[in-house]
Amino acid sequence: MSLPVSFIHFPKITDPRGNLTFLQNPDQLPFKIERVFWTYDVPGGEIRGAHAYRQQQEVIIALSGSFDVVITNPDGTSEKFSLNRSYYGMYLPPLTWRQMENFSTNSLGLHISSDPYNDADYIRDFKEYQQFFNEAQHRI
Predict the structure, then answer these.
(1) Thinking of the domain 6-139, which architecture would CATH place it in?
(2) CA dihedral 98, 12, 116, 108 (to 10 degrees)
């Protein structure tokens, strides 16, 4: 079972002086932006994320450098996606278990979220995630 992650192609305006990419609500994102944060200076071999959100939606963009996003499905299978272009964003719906790894030197990851920070929205234990996901599927 694969979760419905998708990619958003942002406008890329090329110019000999340097390219420009932008995003704006509601044109490119499937949600209203409530929080933005970024990851940087990640030491070699470190992993970020390793959680899911109950309600929050997120778009992740590699503004500089590259890193991999590993999506682990509730059945334990996983898919790896490399982010390395600043004009593509990876959309992650609620209940998507993710972790970021394999950060290049000086990588910069931008995270755009549908909700303000709320620790109660995080699921940080994979077994708890599997249980919550299965219960959510039965309610649908």
Answers:
(1) Sandwich (2.60)
(2) 60
Residue 82 near residue 51, CB atoms below 8 Å: no
pLDDT along the chain (140 residues), means of 10: 80 95 87 96 95 97 98 95 96 97 97 97 97 84
Please say whether the beta carbons of 39 and 109 come within 8 A.
Answer: yes
Query: Looking at residue 100, what is its pLDDT?
Result: 98
Cis before 43 (ω within 30): no
Listed residue (115, 126, 134, 139) closest to 49, CA to CA: 126
- Whole-model pTM? 0.92
Tokens 């998507």, residue located: 96
Residue ranges per structural domain of the chain: 6-139
Residues 6+ apart with CB under 8 A from 130: 74
Q: How far apart are CA 140 and CA 134, in angstroms?
A: 10
C-alpha 44/C-alpha 67 separation (Å) is: 11
